[in-house]
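HUMAN: Quick job: go over this next protein and say how the chain folds.
***
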Amino acid sequence: MTIYEIPLRTLSGEPTSLAEHRGKALLIVNVASKCGLTPQYTGLEELHERFAGRGFSVLGVPCNQFAGQEPGTSEEIAEFCSATYGVTFPLLEKIDVNGENRHPLYAELVTAQDAEGVAGDIKWNFEKFLVSPAGEVVGRFRPQTAPGDGALVSAVEAQLPV
Protein backbone atom coordinates (compact mmCIF):
# COMPACT_ATOMS: atom_id res chain seq x y z
CA MET A 1 0.00 0.00 0.00
CA THR A 2 1.30 3.46 -0.89
CA ILE A 3 0.83 6.51 1.29
CA TYR A 4 -1.88 7.61 -1.18
CA GLU A 5 -4.01 4.54 -0.44
CA ILE A 6 -4.21 4.89 3.35
CA PRO A 7 -7.82 5.63 4.32
CA LEU A 8 -8.22 8.94 6.12
CA ARG A 9 -11.04 11.21 7.24
CA THR A 10 -11.31 14.96 6.99
CA LEU A 11 -11.83 16.97 10.15
CA SER A 12 -15.54 17.00 9.32
CA GLY A 13 -15.55 13.17 9.15
CA GLU A 14 -15.71 12.68 5.40
CA PRO A 15 -13.70 9.77 3.92
CA THR A 16 -10.58 10.91 2.06
CA SER A 17 -7.02 9.89 1.29
CA LEU A 18 -3.81 11.55 0.22
CA ALA A 19 -4.62 10.50 -3.36
CA GLU A 20 -6.36 13.85 -3.86
CA HIS A 21 -2.94 15.44 -3.25
CA ARG A 22 -1.04 13.13 -5.61
CA GLY A 23 1.55 15.16 -7.50
CA LYS A 24 1.84 17.77 -4.74
CA ALA A 25 4.50 18.15 -2.11
CA LEU A 26 2.94 17.88 1.35
CA LEU A 27 4.02 18.92 4.83
CA ILE A 28 2.10 16.68 7.24
CA VAL A 29 2.05 18.05 10.78
CA ASN A 30 0.50 16.69 13.99
CA VAL A 31 -1.12 19.78 15.47
CA ALA A 32 -2.63 20.85 18.80
CA SER A 33 -4.57 23.92 19.93
CA LYS A 34 -3.30 24.25 23.50
CA CYS A 35 0.45 23.77 23.12
CA GLY A 36 3.36 26.15 23.53
CA LEU A 37 4.10 25.46 19.86
CA THR A 38 0.54 26.28 18.70
CA PRO A 39 1.69 29.67 17.30
CA GLN A 40 3.42 27.60 14.59
CA TYR A 41 -0.01 27.60 12.91
CA THR A 42 0.87 31.12 11.71
CA GLY A 43 4.06 29.95 10.01
CA LEU A 44 2.40 26.84 8.62
CA GLU A 45 -0.34 28.96 7.04
CA GLU A 46 2.28 31.35 5.61
CA LEU A 47 4.22 28.41 4.14
CA HIS A 48 1.00 26.96 2.70
CA GLU A 49 0.01 30.27 1.10
CA ARG A 50 3.53 30.93 -0.20
CA PHE A 51 3.84 27.65 -2.10
CA ALA A 52 0.25 26.48 -2.74
CA GLY A 53 0.34 27.83 -6.29
CA ARG A 54 3.40 25.70 -7.01
CA GLY A 55 1.88 22.36 -5.99
CA PHE A 56 2.32 22.33 -2.22
CA SER A 57 0.02 21.91 0.76
CA VAL A 58 0.33 21.76 4.50
CA LEU A 59 -1.87 19.05 6.00
CA GLY A 60 -2.74 19.33 9.70
CA VAL A 61 -3.46 16.23 11.76
CA PRO A 62 -4.86 17.00 15.24
CA CYS A 63 -3.61 14.72 18.00
CA ASN A 64 -4.40 14.69 21.73
CA GLN A 65 -1.61 12.32 22.83
CA PHE A 66 0.75 14.93 24.24
CA ALA A 67 -0.40 16.28 27.63
CA GLY A 68 -4.01 16.47 26.41
CA GLN A 69 -3.24 19.57 24.35
CA GLU A 70 -5.87 18.91 21.66
CA PRO A 71 -9.01 18.15 23.71
CA GLY A 72 -11.54 19.82 21.40
CA THR A 73 -14.17 18.36 19.13
CA SER A 74 -13.72 18.54 15.38
CA GLU A 75 -15.97 21.61 15.31
CA GLU A 76 -13.99 23.32 18.08
CA ILE A 77 -10.68 22.57 16.35
CA ALA A 78 -11.95 23.92 13.02
CA GLU A 79 -13.28 27.10 14.64
CA PHE A 80 -10.08 27.66 16.64
CA CYS A 81 -7.81 27.20 13.63
CA SER A 82 -9.90 29.44 11.40
CA ALA A 83 -10.69 32.21 13.88
CA THR A 84 -7.34 32.36 15.69
CA TYR A 85 -4.84 31.60 12.91
CA GLY A 86 -6.76 31.97 9.64
CA VAL A 87 -5.89 28.40 8.68
CA THR A 88 -6.93 27.49 5.14
CA PHE A 89 -4.89 24.31 4.70
CA PRO A 90 -6.69 20.96 5.06
CA LEU A 91 -7.16 19.39 8.48
CA LEU A 92 -7.77 15.69 9.05
CA GLU A 93 -9.63 14.01 11.89
CA LYS A 94 -7.99 13.76 15.30
CA ILE A 95 -5.91 10.56 15.47
CA ASP A 96 -3.24 8.77 17.50
CA VAL A 97 0.27 9.18 16.12
CA ASN A 98 1.99 6.85 18.61
CA GLY A 99 1.20 3.67 20.49
CA GLU A 100 -1.06 0.70 20.01
CA ASN A 101 -3.71 2.73 18.15
CA ARG A 102 -1.27 4.62 15.91
CA HIS A 103 -3.00 5.53 12.67
CA PRO A 104 -1.62 3.72 9.57
CA LEU A 105 -0.53 7.07 8.10
CA TYR A 106 1.77 7.62 11.05
CA ALA A 107 2.91 3.99 11.04
CA GLU A 108 4.37 4.86 7.64
CA LEU A 109 5.62 8.36 8.52
CA VAL A 110 7.55 7.40 11.67
CA THR A 111 9.86 5.16 9.65
CA ALA A 112 11.41 8.34 8.21
CA GLN A 113 14.57 9.66 9.81
CA ASP A 114 15.23 13.22 10.92
CA ALA A 115 18.44 15.15 10.12
CA GLU A 116 20.29 13.25 12.86
CA GLY A 117 19.24 9.89 11.41
CA VAL A 118 16.65 9.17 14.13
CA ALA A 119 13.32 7.55 13.24
CA GLY A 120 10.58 6.25 15.52
CA ASP A 121 7.86 7.72 17.70
CA ILE A 122 6.62 11.27 17.43
CA LYS A 123 8.20 13.30 20.23
CA TRP A 124 5.62 16.10 20.61
CA ASN A 125 3.06 18.25 18.81
CA PHE A 126 4.08 19.92 15.54
CA GLU A 127 6.45 17.26 14.21
CA LYS A 128 6.65 17.75 10.46
CA PHE A 129 7.00 15.27 7.58
CA LEU A 130 7.76 16.38 4.03
CA VAL A 131 6.26 14.15 1.35
CA SER A 132 7.43 14.45 -2.26
CA PRO A 133 5.01 14.78 -5.19
CA ALA A 134 5.71 11.07 -5.83
CA GLY A 135 4.47 10.11 -2.34
CA GLU A 136 7.87 9.47 -0.73
CA VAL A 137 8.67 10.78 2.74
CA VAL A 138 11.74 12.92 2.05
CA GLY A 139 12.13 14.90 5.25
CA ARG A 140 11.36 14.86 8.95
CA PHE A 141 11.56 17.95 11.12
CA ARG A 142 11.20 17.83 14.88
CA PRO A 143 8.62 19.98 16.70
CA GLN A 144 10.97 22.85 17.57
CA THR A 145 11.76 23.42 13.88
CA ALA A 146 9.72 26.49 12.97
CA PRO A 147 7.83 26.48 9.66
CA GLY A 148 10.00 29.37 8.45
CA ASP A 149 13.28 27.58 9.27
CA GLY A 150 15.69 27.86 6.34
CA ALA A 151 16.37 24.12 6.12
CA LEU A 152 12.64 23.33 6.10
CA VAL A 153 11.81 25.99 3.50
CA SER A 154 14.72 24.83 1.29
CA ALA A 155 13.55 21.22 1.57
CA VAL A 156 10.02 22.24 0.52
CA GLU A 157 11.34 24.30 -2.41
CA ALA A 158 13.46 21.35 -3.58
CA GLN A 159 10.25 19.33 -4.01
CA LEU A 160 8.50 21.93 -6.16
CA PRO A 161 8.70 22.48 -9.90
CA VAL A 162 10.84 25.43 -10.95
